[in-house]
Amino acid sequence: MPFSCLKRMALGRSFLGACAALSISIAPVGLACAQEQRPPQTALTYSVFVHGLHVMNIQASYWLSDQQYGVAAQVKTTALFGLFMKTDLSMQAQGRFDGRAVEPEKFTTAGWSRRSMRRATIVYKDGMPEVSVLEPAETDREPVTQEERKGAVDVLSALIGILHQARSQQSCQGQEKLFDGLRLTTLSLQTAGTVKLPSGGPWDWGETGLRCNFVGQQVKGFHFSSDKSKLHNPQPGRVWFENIGNLGLVAVRIELDHPKLGRINVLLSSTPKQYP
């Protein structure tokens, strides 16, 4: 069923995450921090649309400083779409920054996806993601070797790294490898400058924002029986960041051109909140 690709996007591609609202009124997600004090936590809600159909909600919460970050998300299908293809996943990640580079320490995900309860934990040692938990095991996929996944990060860390660079340097240049425990995806980013925000959709924000173009492409971890012809294709997309109040730059709109689903829109659906 083609909509299963949307769950893969939520797990390990772009939004690639692309990419998490269970409700408009949200509570902050608890995240561990090695420091005694940390920056305020920001909570956001997003809605995901495919061909104009509202299919998912994303609740996200994060904090970040110049040295560290913590981020969590919950991805859940809407009630109507959930009758056909249910997803209810929670994810958390934490790590550090080394200049512009993001260095994750741990990533966890758990919940219902692809007709099964699933759980995964990835820990990072010297830039190497090691899968300590993967339930259920999927033996019908091509393996991703240690050498191939070395230096790869999880999708949440990749997203927070893009936000960190956008805030600190007003740019989003670079390349990343993403690994979710099963699939390996490459991600390239390029700054497109400050541009007019696109109109359309149920929510419009400001007039201008920082636009970043990206291209994601799965390179390993395909099902042995799958047809790679479409899933192997590059998936171009765009993200717009806008300055909102005292929160700084916030991602307000993400567009992804999926090879099977077509245009996927992820839209900020309410004003972000900040918690101490």
Helices and strands: which structural class? mainly beta
Which segments are poorly predicted (pLDDT under 50) over 5 or more consecutive residues? Answer: 1-35
Strand % is: over 45%
Question: How would you state the average pLDDT, rounded?
Answer: 85
Rg on CA atoms, Å? 17 Å
Kindly state the number of beta strands: 14
Helical amount among residues, as a percent range? 10-25%
Question: What is the CA-CA span between the terminal residues?
Answer: 43 Å
Shape: globular
DSSP helical segment count? 5
What order do the helices and strands follow? HEEEHEEEEHHEEEHEEEE
Largest sheet: 14 strands, antiparallel
3D structure, described in words:
- Keywords: Signal.
- It holds the Pfam family DUF3108.
- It comes from Acetobacter orientalis.
- Residues 1-34 form the signal peptide.
- The chain has 276 residues and is mainly β.
- Helices cover 13% and strands 49% of the residues.
- The protein contains 5 helices and 14 strands.
- The longest helix is centred in the middle third of the chain and has 15 residues, at 155-169.
- The chain is globular.
Give a short synopsis of this structure.
The chain has 276 residues and is mainly beta.
Key words describing this protein structure:
14-stranded antiparallel beta sheet, single chain, 14 strands, mainly beta, 5 helices, 276 residues, 49% strand, globular
